[in-house]
Design a protein that fits this description.
- By secondary structure, the protein is an alpha/beta fold.
- It has four domains: 171 residues, Rossmann fold (3-Layer(aba) Sandwich); 197 residues, 3-Layer(aba) Sandwich (Rossmann fold), CATH 3.40.50; 108 residues, no CATH class; 57 residues.
- 37% of the residues lie in helices and 20% in strands.
- Strands 3-4-2-5-6-1-7 form a seven-stranded parallel β-sheet. A six-stranded parallel β-sheet has the order 8-15-14-11-13-12, sandwiched between helices. Strands 18-19-20 form a three-stranded mixed β-sheet, covered by helices on one side.
Length: 566
């Protein structure tokens, strides 16, 4: 089946090809897990196959699952191409158009290939490119020849645990997009983040290779008390959800799977020596297994949109490891609204332990209470106040509720911008759930402060529902408005009626290239249309973008400020 690229994927391919044609020979794509790196690589390959000088193409990865997924994707999109795998017992003829190879096999068999034959070399998970095996392969196929070939890397985390960066090999970033942007576009699900704080005494755990030493960490985590702590947390927040558990070691993974089985939960373990790994993963995908435990196997190359919960039962110092683990649960699936992340955190505040709070610059004691830490950080970073004492208090705050309380305690003239850069909303947080009549009254008070064009507020089962007079309600402003309403009333809040999937502004931005910027963006409520001031658009692009925008959002788009290009 032919690939229909998402706008940002198309934009990434265009950027790569444009930079290459303008002389760039080394570049990388910085994309979060779930962005579709294999799709983008396939589309780049298609472009190179269409060039007049048709060189061969080499795709390098380090795991069997990635090799097989990549070959399948390329053959589905380009069925007439010859694609062969160089890995283990499988051997490429060396004359094929596209070779997909494991770095482990390629380093031993590279002499069978003439490096001058290759016009495109793609390195998956290219943060590994500084490892000796990768360096040797890249040197053979790229560095030691003088041709106009392209070396393209793909990674979710260019910076390694040891502080080195993949940019030292790939020179420049051709395209990047963040997890939050993809969530706004509806291509990734949000995170519900919960921490379990306990006394792990990680200061006593040795560090090896930039992360906790496996044996030492496993001794800490693989005790009946710590396993019970993780399982109790899962029963409270993850029960009934398809789950992957990242463990501190192989024995820890086996013990956790056994513990779940004894609870009556269908669980299996996957490690590097699991002989029937493909069959276990197949059963997990079709929901015959509810929980998978693993150590160091499912961090990369495994995609299942049905995953609803990630249990981090292995502390790590590595942003790379942490990001890859969390990324396993972010793909959207049928009926899936979010991914629950449960993080076991050392109460002693070990300075090297990496978690979602530290990942996004929040204090180590930060409690998200199920919210997405990245969005919380972005909301706090847009606060502007001129009260030094209050500023320091916000820096020391441990919850979003504390931050909001500090903002409401300040005189209006001391606050230029509140959470998410919006005006501060004033209300009394509820200590319990109000009765329906009062909850609706308090909701109207807050909505009046925002001038939100509501149609009606009503109770539906166990939640308050709000219908708005225009469709754009899924952007950041309305997500935080929902949080304010829930804090003020004690009721869950749902938006209903005219809501549309995704954020129109984020979708519009995804269709633009690097030289085109949205200067202004506003929704005209009466006409249910959008007005945007965008720089550097041609007349042809105006018509094309407006047409695609309306097809996606069902909103008319009026573009102003474009500069016709001839």
């Amino acid at each position: 089946m032919k690939i229909t690229p998402r706008p940002y994927q198309k934009k990434a391919v265009e950027s790569v090809i444009s930079l290459y044609k303008n002389g760039s020979a080394k570049m990388l794509l910085h994309l979060p897990t779930g962005a579709g790196k294999t799709i983008i690589a396939t589309l780049v390959i298609e472009q190179f196959l269409s060039f007049s000088r048709k060189g061969k193409i080499l795709f390098i990865a380090h795991r069997e699952e990635i090799l097989d997924q990549t070959r399948k994707k390329i053959k589905n999109h380009l069925p007439l191409t010859d694609v062969q795998i160089e890995q283990g017992q499988r051997s490429s003829s060396g004359e094929t158009q596209i070779t997909i190879a494991s770095v482990q096999s390629l380093i031993r068999r590279k002499e069978k290939y003439n490096p001058r034959d290759f016009s495109l070399i793609i390195c998956d998970e290219c943060h590994r490119a500084l490892a000796p095996s990768w360096t040797d392969v890249i040197s053979y196929f790229y560095e030691n020849k003088k041709t106009s070939s392209l070396l393209l890397g793909m990674t979710a985390t260019p910076k390694r645990t040891d502080g080195q960066s993949a940019l030292s090999v790939f020179n420049e970033i051709a395209f990047e997009i963040s997890r939050v942007e993809l969530q706004d576009l509806g291509y990734l699900v949000p995170i519900e983040y919960f921490t379990v704080r306990t006394d792990l005494n990680l200061d006593k755990v040795r560090i090896s290779g930039g992360d906790y030493q496996v044996g030492s960490l496993s001794q800490v985590m693989n005790t009946p008390e710590r396993r019970a702590l993780a399982m109790n947390a899962w029963q409270e927040k993850g029960l009934g959800k398809k789950t992957i558990i990242f463990c501190a070691g192989v024995d820890h993974a086996h013990r956790m799977a056994l513990d779940f089985e004894q609870l009556g939960i269908k669980a299996r373990v996957v490690d590097a020596r699991t002989s029937n790994r493909k069959e276990i993963l197949r059963k997990f995908r079709i929901n015959k297994i509810g929980v998978l435990t693993n150590y160091g196997v499912l961090t990369e190359g495994f995609d299942d949109p049905g995953i609803e919960c990630i249990l981090m039962a292995r502390p790590t110092t590595s942003p790379l490891v942490y990001t890859q683990c969390i990324g396993r649960g972010l793909r959207p699936g049928k009926g899936k609204k979010a991914c629950t992340v449960i993080d076991i955190i050392d109460r002693s505040k070990h300075q090297l332990q990496y978690g979602a709070a530290s990942m996004y610059g929040l204090s180590r004691n930060w409690n998200s209470k199920g919210r997405d830490p990245q969005r919380e950080y972005q909301a706090i970073s847009k606060i502007k106040i001129n009260d030094v004492e209050a500023f320091l208090k916000i820096k020391e705050a441990q919850t979003l509720e504390q931050v909001q309380s500090i903002l409401m305690s300040l005189p209006p003239q001391a606050v230029t911008a509140g959470l998410d850069g919006e005006p501060v909303l004033y209300y009394e947080p509820s200590k319990k759930r109000y009765d329906p009549a009062r909850a609706q009254k308090e909701t109207r008070k807050i909505l009046k402060q925002t001038s939100a064009p509501i149609k009606r507020i009503f109770q539906h089962r166990d939640a308050l529902r709000i219908s708005f007079a225009f469709p754009e309600i899924n952007n950041e402003k309305f997500q935080y408005l929902k949080w304010h309403l829930e804090s003020a009333t004690g009721w869950p809040v749902d938006y209903v009626g005219n809501e549309k999937k995704g954020n129109p502004k984020a979708f519009l931005n995804s269709m633009l290239n690097e030289s085109q910027k949205i200067k202004q963006f506003s929704i005209i409520e009466e006409n249910k249309s959008v007005s945007a001031w965008i720089s550097n658009l041609s007349n042809k692009e105006v018509g094309d973008i407006s047409k695609r925008f309306k097809k996606k959002t069902r909103l008319d788009l009026e573009i102003k400020g474009q500069i016709p290009l001839f």
